[in-house]
Amino acid sequence: MKIMLVRDRNVLNNNWLAYFANLLHKRGHEVVIACDTYTKLGVSAPGYELEDGVRVANVNGKTASPLCNLWHKVRCKLLPSWGLFNRLIEKEKPDMIICYFPVDLYNVTRFQRHNIPIVQMLHGYPPMILDKVLKKNPLLRAWCRRSFAQVSAFQVLMNSYKKDIDPFFAPKKIVRIANPVKQYAESEMVDLAHEKKRIIYVARVEKNIKRPHLLAEAFAKIAPEFPDWKVEIWGLRKYPDYEKEIENFIAAHNLTGQVALMGYNRDVEALYRSADIHAFPSSCEGFSLAIADAMALGLPHIGFKDAHSVNEIIVDGHNGFLAENVDDFAEKLKILMKDKALRIKFGQNAREDMKAYAPEILMQQWDDLFKELAAPQK
Known about the structure:
alpha/beta, Rossmann fold, 2 domains, six-stranded parallel sheet, globular
C-alpha cells in the first residue's frame, strides 16, 4: 500500500515521524512524507534516520534556480499550499493519507476531492488540538468542518480520549492506536542496582504544559536530606524568561550544583541510563514517548494524578507514583530516593508494561485500520 504522511513543517526534526515512517516501510508499505517547507528539513536524531526507500516530497523546497528559489521563499510565507498538495497527490496517487495536524488536513482537502481514505492523527490530548477550531468565527469553523468531513478515521493515543472529540467534527470512526515503543534487550536496561543518585526530566523547557519548575520546587522541599542527589532538566530551551525564573529559584533555594537546566541532548537513551528516577511534572500529554521510552529501559517514574495520559501510563504503586500536588510529589520522590529495591521493582514493572506497545503489535493495528478503510464500502 502506498501511504502519504503529511506534515506541514518541522519534518525530520520530529524523531517520532521518522520512526513511524520507517516502521511503515518495514511493513512493506511505500511511504512518502509530504511537506511544505522552504527551510532545511532538519536532521533526525541518531537511530531515527529515514530508511532507504522512504521518500520526502517537499512541495516548496529549494531548487538549483535562484529565481525559482526567490519565488518559493515568498510563496511559502504568503500563499496557501492547497494547490501544491493537490498536484502532489495527483502525481503520487497514494492509497492512504495520514495527516499529522489539522493544518495538514486542510492542505490535502481544501478545494480538493480525492476519494482517498484520510486518517487524522490526534497526536496529543484531543481538546488541546481541536478546540482551536471551535474558537474560530462561524465562517472559518464551517470551512474547517468541510475538511474534517473528509476524514475517514481519527486516531487517538489513549482509549479515554475517544470521548473527548467534540461532535462538531462528526467523526465517522475513532480508533485508539498508541505510539509504538522501542523494545530493549536485558543487557540494555538501566542499571538501577548501581545507584547514580540522579533524577532527570526529559522534555522541552516550557511553563504551562511541561512545568519543570514544579520538579525544582518539589526537590527543594527535600534537598537538605539528600545533599548528594542531583536533578537534571534536559530538553529544548526556547523561553529565556521562564528559564530565568527557574534559575532564580535554584539560586534562591541554594540548589546550585544540585538542580540544573542541562539543555538539549540527542542521545536520550544515554540520559535515561544515567538516572535512577524519571520525574515527570507535565500537566498533560498525548502519549508521552519520554515516559514510555524511559519505562522500556526500566526507569521508575513519578507524575501527577490529574495529568492526562501521564496518569494512565504511570500506574501508581506499580511502575511509579502519582502525586496529588507538589508536596506529595516531594514525598513520593523521597520514598523512591531512599528505597533502591523499590526503584528496581518499579523499573522492572515499567519494562514489562511497555511490551504491550511493541512496534510489531502497534503496526499490526495500523495495518488492520488501513485494510478496513481501503475495503469497498457495502
